[in-house]
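Please review the protein record below. Tell me whether the encoded fold seems credible here:
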Amino acid sequence: MDFSGASSVFLMVPPGFAGPLEPVLARADGVERVVLLSSQGVGTGRHPAAYEEAVQASGLKWTVLRPAGFASNAFQWAESVRSAREVAAPFGDVALPVIDPEDIASVAAAALVDPAHEGRTYELTGAAAVSPRDQAAAIGEAVGEPVRFVPRTREEARAALLGFMPPHVADATLDILGSPTAAEQQVSPDVSRVLGRPPRSFAEWASRFAGAFK
């Protein structure tokens, strides 16, 4: 990883990265500030805190972002919405405050340039908790046609996730989707505090990307 010429770095650890973060940070010559994309699961104890701890102990000025699930995960339904006007998912009525990735990017940009965010950990969520059934309805509104919600069992969903996730990650993901803690369902004020405006809703995200579902 080459940090040449960078004074501030947005750090998103890739899915295939398995090693410690300390050697990477040790090579960050000239870097003064790092903004780490972590996850809400660190704050709720679902995920390990090793990367956050490495950044906080690095000697760099740091900000940690802990986003909830991404609204853009709904792209997984794009083909079924286009072909059959349906969304298949487990836990149809369990609502979580998914966040528009553009709001994450806006908070990250602010943290990269404004020292007021140094030493802060931000919990990033959308404007309201929305269930998969709600998301299907919002996508239908965006494309101008009803989108049917099709319930999936946990086992069916797990089989699909194992196509691109290791088993322990699939199981942890399904635990959050099916049995979220109160903290995982709570809307955080941090996006509004940083950006001076409310976070975008899932419906706004769906409207912006309606073309992917038509």
Summary: DSSP finds eleven helices and six strands in the chain.
